[in-house]
C-alpha cells in the first residue's frame, strides 16, 4: 500500500558483508589526514615561521646610517635608533618616527641617491 517508502527487510548477512567490504580501519583511515597536515606544515607554516625569523633578525640589526624601506613605502636613512622606534630621515631636514617592526627592508647603500 505504501508507494513512496520501501519496506525494510531484515538480513542478518548484510552487516557482516558491509564490514568486510570496508577493509581495515584504524591506521589506514588516518593516513590521508596526517598527509594533509604534513603538506599544510611544509607549504604554509614552515615558510611563514622562516620569514618571521628573518624579519626579527633584520629589525634587531638596524643601526644608524642604514637606508631602509618601511611597510608604508617610505624610504629613508636611519638617524636615531631607539628600543622600539627609529627616526628615519626621508628628505633633508624631514624626520619621521616609525616602529622598528615597520621596517620592511634594508636597502643597499646609495639607493637613495638614485631616487
From TrEMBL:
Bilayer topology: Single-pass membrane protein
Keyword Transmembrane: yes
Pfam families registered for this protein in UniProt: YajC
Keywords associated with the record: Cell membrane, Membrane, Protein transport, Translocation, Transmembrane, Transmembrane helix, Transport
Domain of life: Bacteria
InterPro entries in the record: Preprotein_translocase_YajC
Gene Ontology biological process terms in this record: protein transport
One CC-aspect GO term: plasma membrane
Transmembrane segments: 27-45
Localization in the cell: Cell membrane
Similarity section: Belongs to the YajC family.
UniProt protein name: Sec translocon accessory complex subunit YajC
Gene this chain is encoded by: yajC
Amino acid at each position: 500500500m505504501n508507494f513512496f517508502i520501501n519496506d525494510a527487510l531484515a538480513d542478518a548477512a548484510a552487516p557482516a558483508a558491509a564490514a568486510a567490504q570496508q577493509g581495515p580501519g584504524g591506521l589506514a583511515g588516518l593516513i590521508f589526514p596526517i598527509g594533509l597536515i604534513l603538506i599544510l606544515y611544509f607549504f604554509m607554516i614552515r615558510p611563514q615561521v622562516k620569514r618571521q625569523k628573518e624579519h626579527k633578525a633584520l629589525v634587531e640589526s638596524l643601526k644608524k646610517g642604514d637606508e631602509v624601506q618601511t611597510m608604508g613605502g617610505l624610504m629613508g636613512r636611519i638617524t636615531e635608533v631607539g628600543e622600539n622606534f627609529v627616526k628615519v630621515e626621508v628628505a633633508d631636514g624631514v624626520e619621521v618616527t616609525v616602529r622598528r617592526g615597520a621596517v620592511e627592508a634594508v636597502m643597499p647603500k646609495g639607493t637613495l641617491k638614485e631616487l
